[in-house]
Design a protein that fits this description.
The structure holds 2 protein chains of 2 kinds. In chain A, 36% of the residues lie in helices and 15% in strands. By secondary structure, chain A is of the alpha/beta class. The radius of gyration of chain A is 16 Å and the shape is globular. Classes of the chains: A alpha/beta, B alpha+beta.
């Protein structure tokens, strides 16, 4: 392993840019992701920066069961994120559809049909600490030795 | 011929300032916004279609998942509609505990709305103060109901959990702390010259326009619409001596300040409730019967109406929900943002009307 790769690994594990997309939830999970920004949880001390720009994100948090409008748009957003990238499903909705997955509803879960999901955080909604620990445990693992394993 | 529309600028559905997906199409001439169109439909899950034909025990959990931010009030209005259909009496202690849960949830909702506004005008310090204060408020909601967001606290004929006296004392101490912190933030917000430049006189909507476009909640109250708070007609709030907050400026600043004033008012209401909490049971009896009724309650964003028709087994045959944000964001797109002098004010004005897209589209 080269020194350059070592440096990249070290930097990437402490500099994670997060984007979130709501594909049809009750927005309870949205505000729990926002609550991670609060000084109590202090997401930025781990080097995680939450903004909502897919073009410069590393981690995409997918929230909500997939509504018909998002079937193609979610894939577009995923394609816009530069490599290396990872998607984390937040809440029950992207995993199973939660309470909305009943006959007559318009949704089409799970979200793993549309984009590859690396980790799932169940809960309705999950606590901010759980979201935080999921991002912290999955992102450095996926980004480790990215350049060397690619070639 | 002179071209009037230079460029059509779409904002969203994924936007750094939006919490939820919604698209605004602004037609601009230079920096001036001529016309704005709202494009909804990204969150339509069909909750009302799922609700039909299900027993109320299931619909109760679906009702509070219409909106995550104001889930307590969705629960409360659904349950009070079911009680109105079935003539179920609520014990006085349960009625007071409902007000406590509802007001604590309203404080959290207003705090996150004002957080979003401060974040959108790029005043991150104030935003973080407010978000941290919200965590203290949610701790108290969790202490009372057992959950942070989707609480399912109320059931027909009462509430699920009692408030222990020591928990009430902790809640009062925490709310005193919250009041101090919010008072400090309000002082900074009122006197900040840069905040005033981004807020005062921006996104103006006068009283006639607010009434004509049927705005509700803090958006209407900031434009001086009197008697627009449905808590004035709720018997428990009437017993607590509730009075409506009204401001007359009608701009972004007024909308944020109305929410701040309502936070103080809610803290006072919770204090009054805990001090005068009647003794007695928290759950009465009763059966859900056949019938139909429409009932409205005051959500943090305004008037929330449920129309429910049930059969003799307590199943929901028909249901219609009217949520507050749909009028507010339509009024925002058609009268507040119209003739905005710069495109940079569009996001701030839109967030100041406190859009809740999950509520709107259900």
């Amino acid at each position: 392993m080269s020194i350059l790769q070592d440096i990249k690994n070290a930097v990437r594990s402490r500099s994670i840019h997060v984007s979130y997309v709501d594909v049809g939830s009750c927005n309870g999970c949205d505000i729990e992701v926002l609550a991670c920004l609060a000084p109590r949880y202090d997401i930025e001390q781990y080097g995680i920066y939450v903004h909502n720009n897919p073009r410069e994100a590393d981690v995409l948090l997918v929230i909500g069961s997939v509504t018909p409008q998002w079937v193609d748009k979610l894939r577009n957003i995923w394609d816009k994120i530069p490599e290396p990238k990872v998607a984390v499903a937040i809440g029950n909705c992207p995993i199973s559809g939660c309470v909305y997955n009943r006959r007559g509803s318009l949704i089409n879960p799970p979200v793993s049909k549309y984009i590859p999901i690396a980790a799932q955080v169940p809960g309705c909604p999950p606590r901010p600490t759980e979201i935080l620990s999921a991002i912290l445990s999955v992102a450095p693992l996926i980004f480790k030795d990215y350049e060397e394993s690619k070639s | 011929m002179k071209k009037t529309v230079d460029v059509s600028i779409p904002l969203g559905p994924v936007h750094p300032c939006w919490k939820e997906p919604v698209r605004l199409k602004c037609e601009t001439a230079g920096e001036r916004v001529l016309r704005t169109e709202l494009e909804l439909g990204y969150m339509k899950k069909g909750i009302e279609r799922i609700m039909r034909g299900r027993p109320w025990q299931e619909v109760m959990f679906l009702a509070e998942r219409v909106c995550g931010i104001c889930s307590v009030v969705h629960n409360m209005v659904f349950i009070e509609t079911m009680e109105k259909i079935s003539d179920i009496e609520v014990p006085p202690r349960a009625a007071y505990l409902r007000v406590i849960a509802n007001e604590v949830d309203r404080i959290a909702s207003h705090l996150i709305a004002n957080f979003s506004y401060c974040y959108t005008i790029e005043h991150e310090t104030l935003a973080m103060y407010l978000l941290n204060t919200r965590e203290t408020v949610l701790d108290n909601l969790e202490r009372l109901t057992g959950s942070r967001i989707n609480t399912a606290y109320m059931i027909p004929g009462g509430v699920r959990f009692d408030l222990l006296p020591e928990d009430g004392a902790v809640m009062l101490a925490d709310l005193a702390k919250v009041e101090d912190e919010v008072r400090r933030v309000v002082r900074i917000f009122e006197t900040g010259p840069l905040i005033a430049l981004r807020s005062r006189g921006i996104g103006f909507m006068d009283r006639e326009e607010a009434i004509r476009s049927h705005t509700v909640g803090p958006t209407a109250r900031a434009s001086g619409v009197l008697d627009s708070d449905l808590r004035l007609r709720h018997p428990t709030y009437q017993a607590l001596g509730f009075e409506q907050v009204t401001r007359t400026e009608g701009d972004n600043f007024a909308r944020v300040m109305v929410r701040f004033q309502e936070i103080f008012q809610s803290i006072d209401l919770v204090r009054k409730c805990i001090d005068t909490l009647p003794e007695g049971p928290i759950r009465g009896g009763g059966f859900c019967k056949a019938g139909e009724a429409a009932y409205s309650g005051e959500a943090p964003r305004g008037e929330l109406t449920y129309y429910i028709k049930t059969d003799e087994y307590g199943r929901v045959v028909d249901i219609a929900i009217r949520t507050p944000s749909i009028m507010n964001i339509e009024a925002c797109a058609h009268s507040m943002i119209k003739n905005a002098t710069t495109i940079a004010d569009v996001t701030a004005t839109f967030i100041s009307s406190d859009p809740c897209v999950a509520c709107n589209e259900r």
